[in-house]
Amino acid sequence: MNKIRIILFFIFLGVFSVTYQIGSMSDVSEDEANIFMDEFEELVSNIDAFGIFVHNTTIALPM
Q1: CA-to-CA distance for 27 and 22, rounded, in angstroms?
Q2: Which residues have CB under 8 Å from 36's CB, separation 6+?
Q3: What DSSP string runs through 8-55?
Q4: Does the global pTM surpass 0.85?
Q5: Is the Cα torsion angle 53, 46, 35, 37 positive or negative in sign?
Q6: Could you tell me the residue range of the domain that residue 54 belongs to?
Q7: Considering the chain, what is the average pLDDT of its residues?
Q8: Count of domains in the chain?
């Protein structure tokens, strides 16, 4: 059982490494990067440290 688990671990490690490498080789144009950053800044503009703390606390308390 442990031998199968170790083999599966290395298989999935290889699959992850290959997909990560393929993703890192893709090119993103300047326009796409600017659009992404604008959308990200719009989403993050209303988030503050206290809001993050309250959200994490409400999730952690029931645990």
Answers
A1: 11
A2: 28
A3: HHHHHHHHHHHHHHHHHT----HHHHHHHHHHHHHHHTT--HHHHHHH
A4: no
A5: negative
A6: 2-60
A7: 93
A8: 1
